[in-house]
């Protein structure tokens, strides 16, 4: 496949576009640019702004979107945008438009990242014949599986962010009871995401009988990183602990003993703080099934273009049964 391709990674808050090329089995990207979704009424407007800025009109595109890809019109889980596939294809004069879940693209990109694209969180031999799970928090919580198939890999998008999450301590039980006041079903994304940080902070404030001092995930996170507010520190610690529980549960539920790959927009920004938390202890806290997860490696994606590369590889593999 020759010629440049348009690739995009569209989350609940930001959309990133780039031009991709595929040569000798490798994807390269250039002209990577980011846009805030709130600044554009539609996804098509954002894509046109990018194409006008770079002065080219690719004929093939792959958009990775934060939501389930089921019908011709894709609804974003945490954004007012929609993606009308046929309309977008026509508006951008595309011959080919592939639309995949954002963590599908992230998983496809992770398959091809060099080692410098990762940071080891926890070493382990794992089981190379077993699936790997790619998951993590951003505006929402994404999850995908990478399954070995006949010397290649099949990526399976999931909605793991909407799986229920189980408390492991008295504090977590109390926090979840507070979260349940707003909606009885407490699932991963309500606690382990950007909005989840605010939910946790408000719950801890309510339990202490105080009014919250912060109302945005950035404010809570910055106060935690600076160590200037004890409740903000505890909030982000709890966020990381619940991520550990969710990651361990994903290994159990998906048989993902091949490894856990952490992604999303939040963790790279809090890397040093994250490494000091009880993430690993909570990941391993599986009672009778601790041995099942004990040798599973955990890595963090630190290349912020991984999903864009993945979108390029999805286009390159179009029509193939699996990704190499």
Could you explain how this protein is built, in words?
This protein is an alpha/beta fold and 324 residues long. The chain has two domains: 5-108 and 305-316, ATPase, nucleotide binding domain (Nucleotidyltransferase, domain 5), CATH 3.30.420; 118-302, Hexokinase, domain 1 (3-Layer(aba) Sandwich), CATH 3.40.367.20. The chain is built from twelve helices and 13 strands. It has helices spanning 43-54, 85-91, 102-110, 170-182, 188-191, 194-208, 217-226, 230-254, 271-275, 279-284, 290-293, 306-316; strands at 5-10, 14-23, 26-36, 60-65, 73-75, 82-84, 96-101, 118-122, 132-137, 141-149, 152-158, 259-262, 298-301. The strands form three sheets. The chain has a six-stranded mixed beta sheet, with helices on both faces. Strands 3-2-1-4-7 form a five-stranded mixed beta sheet, with helices on both faces. Helix 3 (102-110) packs across helix 12 (306-316), helix 6 packs across helix 7 (217-226) and helix 6 packs across helix 8. The longest helix has 25 residues, at 230-254. 45% of the residues are buried. It is an enzyme of class 2 (transferase). It catalyses: D-glucose + ATP = D-glucose 6-phosphate + ADP + H(+).
Concise overview:
It is built from twelve helices and 13 strands. It is of the alpha/beta class and 324 residues long.
Topology of helices and strands:
Elements: E1 5-10, E2 14-23, E3 26-36, H1 43-54, E4 60-65, E5 73-75, E6 82-84, H2 85-91, E7 96-101, H3 102-110, E8 118-122, E9 132-137, E10 141-149, E11 152-158, H4 170-182, H5 188-191, H6 194-208, H7 217-226, H8 230-254, E12 259-262, H9 271-275, H10 279-284, H11 290-293, E13 298-301, H12 306-316
Parallel strand pairs: 1-4, 4-7, 9-12, 12-13
Antiparallel strand pairs: 1-2, 2-3, 5-6, 8-13, 9-10, 10-11
Subcellular location: Cytoplasm
Catalytic activity: D-glucose + ATP = D-glucose 6-phosphate + ADP + H(+)
EC number: 2.7.1.2
């Amino acid at each position: 496949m020759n010629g440049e391709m348009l690739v995009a990674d569209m989350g609940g808050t930001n959309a990133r576009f780039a031009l991709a090329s595929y040569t000798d089995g490798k994807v390269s990207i250039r002209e990577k640019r980011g846009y805030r979704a709130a600044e554009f009424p539609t996804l098509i407007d954002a894509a046109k702004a990018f194409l006008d800025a770079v002065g080219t009109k690719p004929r093939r595109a792959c958009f990775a979107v934060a939501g389930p890809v089921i019908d011709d019109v894709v609804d974003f889980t945490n954004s007012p945008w929609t993606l009308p596939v046929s309309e977008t294809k026509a508006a951008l004069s595309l011959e080919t438009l592939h639309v995949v879940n954002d963590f599908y693209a992230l998983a496809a990109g992770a398959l091809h990242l060099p080692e410098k694209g990762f940071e080891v969180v926890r070493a382990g031999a794992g089981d190379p014949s077993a699936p790997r799970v790619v998951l993590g928090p951003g505006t929402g919580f994404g999850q995908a599986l990478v399954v070995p198939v006949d010397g290649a890999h099949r990526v399976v998008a999931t909605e793991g962010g909407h799986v229920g999450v189980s408390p492991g301590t008295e504090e977590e039980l109390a926090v979840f009871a507070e979260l349940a006041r707003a909606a009885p079903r407490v699932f991963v994304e309500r606690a382990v995401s950007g909005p989840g940080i605010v939910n946790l902070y408000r719950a801890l404030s309510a339990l202490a009988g105080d009014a919250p001092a912060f109302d945005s995930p950035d404010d809570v996170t910055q106060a935690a990183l600076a160590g200037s507010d004890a409740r903000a520190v505890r909030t982000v610690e709890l966020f990381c602990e619940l991520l550990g529980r969710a990651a361990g549960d994903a290994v159990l539920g998906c048989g993902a003993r091949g490894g856990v790959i952490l992604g999303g927009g939040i963790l790279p920004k809090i890397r040093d703080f994250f490494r000091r938390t009880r993430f690993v202890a909570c990941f391993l806290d599986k009672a009778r099934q601790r041995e099942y997860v004990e040798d599973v490696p955990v890595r963090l994606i630190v290349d912020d273009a991984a999903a864009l590369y993945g979108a390029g590889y999805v286009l390159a593999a179009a029509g193939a049964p699996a990704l190499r």
